[in-house]
Amino acid sequence: xxxxxxxxxxxxxxxxxxxxxxxxxxxxxxxxxxxxxxxxxxxxxxxxxxxxxxxxxxxxxxxxxxxxxxxxxxxxxxxxxxxxxxxxxxxxxxxxxxxxxxxxxxxxxxxxxxxxxxxxxxxxxxxxxxxxxxxxxxxxxxxxxxxxxxxxxxxxxxxxxxxxxxxxxxxxxxxxxxxxxxxxxxxxxxxxxxxxxxxxxxxxxxxxxxxxxxxxxxxxxxxxxxxxxxxxxxxxxxxxxxxxxxxxxxxxxxxxxxxxxxxxxxxxxxxxxxxxxxxxxxxxxxxxxxxxxxxxxxxxxxxxxxxxxxxxxxxxxxxxxxxxxxxxxxxxxxxxxxxxxxxxxxxxxxxxxxxxxxxxxxxxxxxx
Length: 368
Known about the structure:
There is one protein chain. The protein is 15% helix and 33% strand. The chain is built from 7 helices and 21 strands. A 4-stranded antiparallel beta sheet has the order 3-4-5-6, with no helix packed on it. Strand 4 and strand 5 form a beta hairpin. The chain is globular, with a radius of gyration of 23 Å. The two termini are 18 Å apart. The model is unreliable at 163-171 and 214-221 (pLDDT under 50).
């Protein structure tokens, strides 16, 4: 391939592009991109390159490769690990890893390829695919207290359209601009504290506080609203659903997932722009549905762990974890999960924008 690149070095760019259009094999096309800097630049700048190399669905959305969890060890603190989904996608690419973080790092949340972890009181934002990371200023919070609810969010340059927030440097560096938000709500008083860190501001956390009430309120950068009850609950009837899980769909709309304990159905409620919650009932077919009952004489029960990019993670009371397609209801068991089980606080699903990642890797190759 290197000899071919050297022979064709005098060919005009337009001629090379026409030759590349004749290459139908995806693997051969990627080999062309790695032959020399000139060929790589031509292919990366060609809009049709990714459309030819990747399935149409991969160009429209970010597939689900797996999740980070806390792997319990016989001695010492839990160790973070990455668990691949039912369909492993890491071959040519390295499996995500936490470089620069201690073994006791606790995964908190993710946004694209960025992952927020906590090492003691030190929040760390990292890119597990490249190994790059940034340690944020220490923040002492009541992380493990049952009287507090904690939420985390990461915003990138794409999320912040305001010019004063910065637009990133356009070089594919996800850590060039970001915001990290951590909200703590005290359950008994409903008092909250929102801690915000911005890479474009002073090197420190800004904090605002207030009280969550039932009416639409706005304090600083915080907006809250009471949501209508969409799933009736009869306190005298046996529990039929797991605790609901909130997420955002591909259009950024608030979505609630409520899973039946027997895993026969997933209730999905999506809030549209006019505030109406629109229901969708998705039938599921759990693999263990036809198995015998447990020793307690009841059927296997399921619980929701999290959702990312149209993939819902659930587990049964036998500590088996499954990935469920929110579109089709197809369930696939996830192998190699940490022993001892995982819960909502111990698991962070990951999503990857494959087209952007591949272009970034090819650009790095072209610059070498």
